[in-house]
Design a protein that fits this description.
homodimer; alpha+beta; 8-stranded mixed β-sheet; 5-stranded mixed barrel; 31% helix; elongated
């Protein structure tokens, strides 16, 4: 008989369910199993004398063994789990589990060692389901607006941007590097006339960071679009995108996120508040007495970044804050600058954490080359500069980290928010 | 004024269009420009005496320069391009192109050197739009069937499967490798109770192959689902998935693919024909006199693979053919085998080219370990074997190469079908 998902079980019918044995009480005359699948849990109550062959199977079972069970599902007010139970008359054992090496409260590193067992927790299933909804809603939003999906190479011939360190790959008789961002190639797509593009893909950072928000590999969600001439247009695209995707997440998973993580999914209203970095520092000082040295005011300090959570909520009732007008010294050479030399870019802060850097890009070959020269990068990025010599539309874009968004949605560390975390000391499983 | 896509242009109104100068005839009193954006082309006809300032701008233009042009759009029966033209009264030059280093008929390697210019061709825009529809339709199909999207690590601690060569990465004080397939991790997701998962991501193969269908990096589309006990279920999922996605591609791009590539998009009917390898060889011999040595009949020869195009069309009127019952010697150790020792897997052949290997996987730790041992792999895959010790549902799945599908859809080589091709001698741009 066909499998029924546990959430779709109705009483008064026979059903077949498949899942992990989450709980097991094997008494003398009765056995009580809790079976869990991706959709829920059901109690299975076996009268052992009536079905001795099933009783023999149950004797083999252990916690997290995997079974298919068939039987009548009936109402029973004494059953805590939804007031229903299955009275089984057939069972198949697919897999008998060895004694589990971790528990729900094991240390994080043990959990990472046995991540596939840790991922079985209801919270982790929800995390990946939520991420699926988030990513696919963003794609849907973009495809409906004529964005084209591309897959840029991760193996590259030259280290892509300075700053972050890159991993070196042995490539036949030469060397390659792992792309630390699709930045250069998504701009190449603009020079290709693709007009609007996005990409979801891995991003590699050879940084020995051991914070709770850094990983050596994570999933980036990047986009770029043409004929953009103001930072405002880029910010507007991003706030519309996030409002759309957050609404989908709230609708589909809001209640479960509240129940399992005690976190509200707040669907933001558009526009998000915007503030210039200089004005933000003035506000943080006036409201919270936060001061910072003048020469540090060209960039957002980590403490100021955290304070944004409080500030944007108190001042604007918003979890989000666009911060603009950084100092050119602190920004990438490829950000376009306005007449005053201010980069036409922004950071987006959500819940006190930077989730995006976005900008209008410099598409004029001469200006771009000059800006690369200023940062001493012109030789390193020679191949990239060529993209702008044979005609290139003005354009802008931004990138998001899927794992970081997930982390902030659910209040997790990055280790907990990735399917399999990769860090300087972590390459397994 | 807001930009209008060229396909949406209507006569009798003012419009602003943005795009590349595809063609340029700058005469004494008149200038004729063809502007192309991602949606189409429009003739722009300038009366130079009436707008001397625009005439001066046009004098600066070169082929593939990028402009925004505004003006009234009118009907003109003498204009070949749709019988309409724009009479411009304003123009902005965004980017002046240097003389182009390649032409439409340049050698493939020159085109690869300047891929961003080559990608501007209408065919290549269509190729990436078609790929976007294909991939996103497949995701939509799966999300609607409770599949969860995952992102498995590409940096791995041990070479994943034997057979294909893997790239080695310098990873701080140790070594990592680039995943040549998400196979092991998508199975890990089954052990995690995620029930049904898919992934789109890069796949790396350190093979010195110079054929027109091999690349060192390409985009894989992989899925895996639980409680599968027959090869039939896996094949059925795949044929339904492809029929759905092909219908979307035909609907959205069928006409353009016919016009620009002279290829029909044939939406397949389900079920696709299925044949055992042994029976296929008998048929190929009977119908085409194709013979092969007995000891080569455990696998599909390249010639037999090509012949499948003709055979499946003549016999079943189908471009697709599932071939089952390969010899266990020729298949991966993780394919489940039936009572006769025959792997419960298949290859899917489309237009004479293998596009998938699918199978029911062996989820029983002891059997799996024995099968790994037989192939001398047990030590290499020790970390993977652990996934099956603590409970794992039966499962199956398959993988597709997005680039290979694109290639076959449009009749291209792999170099032409990737956004940026990577091969043993090709790491740039």
């Amino acid at each position: 008989m066909n499998r029924t998902y546990i959430k779709d079980i109705t009483t008064g019918c026979r059903h077949s369910i498949s899942g992990f044995v989450e709980n097991l009480r094997n008494k003398r005359t009765m056995a009580f199993l809790v079976i869990r699948d991706i959709t829920g849990k059901l109690q299975v109550t076996l009268e052992k004398e009536k079905y001795p062959e099933l009783a023999a199977l149950v004797d083999q079972l252990t916690i997290h063994s995997v079974v298919t069970v068939e039987g009548e599902v009936v109402a029973n007010e004494y059953v805590k789990m939804g007031g229903i139970e299955m009275l089984p008359d057939a069972m198949t054992i697919h897999s008998v589990a060895d004694a589990l090496p971790i528990k729900d409260d094991s240390e994080i590193d043990s959990k990472m060692d046995f991540r596939w067992i840790d991922l079985r927790r209801e919270q982790n299933h929800l995390m990946l389901q939520m991420q699926t909804t988030l990513t696919n809603s963003m794609r849907e939003f973009l495809v409906n607006r004529n964005f084209v999906e591309i897959h840029t190479p991760k193996l590259i011939g030259a280290a892509s941007e300075s700053g972050s360190e890159v991993f070196e790959v042995k490539y036949f008789d030469t060397k390659a590097y792992l792309a630390q961002s699709p930045q250069f190639y998504k701009q190449m797509a603009m020079a290709s006339g693709l007009d609007r593009i996005f990409e979801t893909g891995p991003v590699f950072r050879a940084e020995k960071s051991y914070t709770n928000k850094h990983a050596t590999e994570f999933t980036g969600f990047d986009l770029e679009f043409s004929y953009v001439t103001s930072c405002e247009e880029v910010m507007h695209m991003e706030e519309e995108l996030l409002a759309y995707a957050f609404a989908k997440v709230a609708e589909k998973h809001g209640e479960d996120i509240k129940r399992l993580f005690n976190k509200e999914v707040i669907v933001p209203t558009v526009p998000f508040p915007r503030i210039k970095l200089k004005d933000l520092y003035a506000e943080l000082e006036a409201m919270y007495g936060y001061t910072v040295a003048e020469d540090a005011k060209g960039d957002l300090t980590t403490e100021a970044e955290h304070l944004c959570a409080k500030y944007s909520m108190e001042k604007y009732g918003s979890e989000f804050l666009f911060v603009t007008d950084y100092d050119a010294k602190e920004r990438a050479f490829y950000h376009m600058r306005d007449d005053q030399g201010v980069p036409m870019g922004y950071d987006l802060i959500w819940r006190g954490c930077e989730i995006t850097t976005g900008a209008v890009r410099e598409h004029r070959f001469d200006v771009l080359k000059k800006q690369a020269d200023e940062k001493g990068l012109a030789a390193d990025v020679e191949f990239y500069l060529q993209f702008f010599r044979y005609g290139c539309p003005p354009h802008g874009g931004f990138g998001l980290g899927i794992d970081r968004l997930t982390m902030l949605f659910l209040g997790l560390s990055i280790k907990e928010a990735e399917f399999l975390f990769r860090g300087p000391n972590r390459l397994t499983p």
